[in-house]
Amino acid sequence: MIVMLHGAQQDPEDIAAGTEMNEAAEAHGYIVAYPEQSENTNLLKCWHWFRAGDQSRETGETSMIAALTREVVSDYNADPSRVFVAGMSAGGAMAVNLAVPRENGLSVGEQWLVHGLGHAWPGGTHKGHTPIRADRAQ
After folding, report:
1. Model-level pTM?
2. Residues 92/113, Cβ–Cβ less than 8 Å
3. Mind listing the domains of the chain with CATH numbers?
């Protein structure tokens, strides 16, 4: 399973389209989850990777995304030892926050340092994949 975190001013559809991760998942038989930062939480839909309270294993957005990930692992019977997280921009920074404390069940983090592409990827539907919204876990 791969958890993909969008950047600021993006949504799950943007990162799914830009990375073509849904197509790769179908071709190779794995699950992709796309938590979404709520506009009610941050007007730019930016993950709060920079706030101390959102970097802890037990609190904030880091904890919420990890809980959502565990829920998807359980619901879809995914292998919990093979859960990875990646993201773009603010999502990449949050991926690092998630990956560092390994007790939260995530294994690897990768930060994509891609600047200026915040609106380069149009949203859309992708073969029936439904984005998983982070605010579901609250």
Report:
1. 0.73
2. yes
3. 2-137 (3.40.50.1820)
Q: Tell me the HSE value of 95 on the side-chain side, using a 13 A CA sphere.
A: 26
CB 4 within 8 A of CB 32: yes
Largest CA distance in the chain: 38
* Per-position DSSP letters for 11-62, written without gaps between them: -HHHHHHHHTHHHHHHHHT--EE-----TTT-TT----TTSGGGTSSSSHHH
37-81 residue pLDDT tens: 988 999 999 999 889 888 876 789 988 998 999 999 999 999 888
In 3-state terms the chain splits into helix, strand, coil percentages (rounded to 5) of 40, 10, 50
